[in-house]
Structures are given as structure tokens and as C-alpha cells.
Write a structure and sequence with these properties.
The chain is built from 4 helices and 2 strands, in the order H-H-H-E-E-H. 15% of the residues are buried. The structure holds protoporphyrin IX containing FE (2 copies).
Length: 176
């Protein structure tokens, strides 16, 4: 499939929409009350799950768009930067998927009924299973930290292109 030279508007909208949702999602995750046995989800958890599943839907759509509209790395970059940026980008897709799916599984194994922003009942992936819930909780936390590490690295790279290399990499993801 022919690779485009620039990101189109849909790719840019997906990118910044998911960034905005993650900016909300991490703090909700850290600030929401700790879980206790037999606890039912309150408002912070309902919002965490609702934002999380919105992120999952968007990343699936974005991945489908990315696979059908491939974009070549900037040709002026040295080979190691082209390779490493592609690697980090694919890992970001994988880790957003891993974080959202482990979260959804965890909520399912608790046997919870959760609504999507209090609008309708969300489908769950499994039924009540305390042992599986315990195992998957660790995976959701590991995934969330790995994702955060990749994001910090990715933002660091963007800043390096703005302030050190002073090239036009940042412009590739900006409007216009
Ligand atoms: C990319 C999206 C997501 C991010 C960044 C994220 C982040 C977090 C964070 C930071 C925590 C706090 C855990 C800790 O104390 O370290 C958390 C907990 C939790 N998340 Fe997510 N989450 C995401 C998606 C989801 C989804 C889609 C669901 C469910 C459908 C979910 C369900 C949960 C549950 C049930 C907890 C409580 C578990 C615990 O306290 O360990 N998360 N999440
Ligand atoms: C302030 C934060 C961010 C900045 C400044 C930023 C900047 C950029 C830039 C400039 C590119 C284009 C790189 C290139 O052309 O090679 C890009 C691509 C990308 N960014 Fe970000 N980004 C940010 C946050 C995030 C976050 C939180 C994610 C997590 C999902 C993310 C995921 C991606 C992915 C997956 C690509 C590759 C797009 C593709 O090839 O489909 N970015 N970003």
C-alpha cells in the first residue's frame, strides 16, 4: 500500500483527542478511591470506565485508519530515528489497547454493572471471578505505567525535535 508523506486531518484529530482523554484518564485513575471487597463502582469509577472505553473505541478506529492510510516517517531523519520512532508509535498503540482491555477485564471480573456516563449499561467481558480479578489488576497497573513511560519518552522526543534538532517533525502532527 502506498505510504502518504503527511498525516491527514483524521489522523491528527484522533491523535489529539486521545491525548486529551488520557490527560483526564490518568488523574481520575490515581485520584479515585481505593477499592474494597464487594464495593460497587461510584461516580469516579463510572467516569474512569466510561472515558477508558471511549479511548478503547477511538484507538481501534485510529488503528484501522492508520493501517489503511500508512504514513512514511520523515525522509530527512537518520535511519535510527525513523526506526525508533516507528517502534515507539506501534508500542503506543499496543499499550493503549493493553491498558484499556486489562481495565475492562478487571471491572468485569469484579462482577460490576457499570453505565456509560450514566446513559446506558455497558457490556462486560466476563462474570464475577475474584482470583482472575486479582491477577488482572496487576496487569492493568503494569500496563498503565508502561504506557506512561512510553508517553514521557514520546513527548521527550517531540521536545528534542523542537528545541535541539529544530526540524519540522512537530509540524507533522499540528493542524494545517
Ligand atoms: C488508557 C486508558 C486507561 C488508563 C490510562 C488507566 C489508568 C488507571 C490508573 C492510573 C489507575 C489507578 C491504579 C493505581 O493505583 O496505580 C487505574 C485503575 C483502574 N482502572 Fe484504569 N485506566 C485506563 C482504562 C481503564 C478501563 C477501560 C477500565 C475499565 C473498563 C479501567 C478500570 C480500572 C479499574 C477497575 C481500576 C481500579 C483498579 C485498582 O485500583 O487497581 N481502566 N486505571
Ligand atoms: C504533548 C504530547 C504529545 C506530543 C507533542 C506528540 C507529538 C507527536 C508528533 C509530532 C508525532 C508525529 C511524529 C512523526 O511524524 O514521526 C506523533 C505521532 C504519534 N503520537 Fe504523539 N504526541 C503527544 C502525545 C501522544 C500520546 C499521549 C500518545 C498516546 C497514545 C501519542 C501517540 C502517537 C502515535 C501512535 C503516533 C504515530 C501516529 C501514526 O503513525 O499513526 N502521542 N506525536
Amino acid at each position: 500500500m502506498k505510504r502518504h508523506l503527511h498525516y491527514g486531518t483524521p489522523a491528527k484529530i484522533f491523535h489529539w483527542l486521545i491525548v486529551a482523554l488520557l490527560v483526564v484518564q490518568f488523574p481520575i485513575g490515581w485520584l479515585m478511591p481505593d477499592l474494597h471487597r464487594n464495593m460497587q463502582p461510584g461516580a469516579p469509577m463510572t467516569f474512569h470506565v466510561s472515558f477508558g472505553l471511549t479511548i478503547l473505541l477511538l484507538i481501534v478506529l485510529r488503528l484501522a485508519w492508520r493501517l489503511t492510510h500508512p504514513v512514511a516517517p520523515e525522509s530527512s531523519l537518520p535511519a535510527w530515528q525513523r526506526l525508533s520512532s516507528e517502534l515507539v508509535h506501534w508500542m503506543l498503540y499496543v499499550m493503549v489497547l493493553a491498558t484499556t482491555i486489562t481495565g475492562w477485564l478487571f471491572a468485569s471480573y469484579r462482577g460490576w454493572t457499570v453505565s456509560y456516563f450514566y446513559l446506558f449499561r455497558l457490556p462486560m467481558l466476563a462474570s464475577d471471578n475474584a482470583a482472575a480479578g486479582k491477577a488482572i489488576d496487576g496487569l492493568h497497573q503494569a500496563a498503565e505505567w508502561l504506557l506512561l513511560g512510553l508517553i514521557v519518552f514520546h513527548i521527550g522526543a517531540a521536545l528534542a525535535h523542537i528545541f535541539i534538532y529544530r526540524d519540522r517533525i512537530m509540524q507533522r502532527m499540528l493542524p494545517g
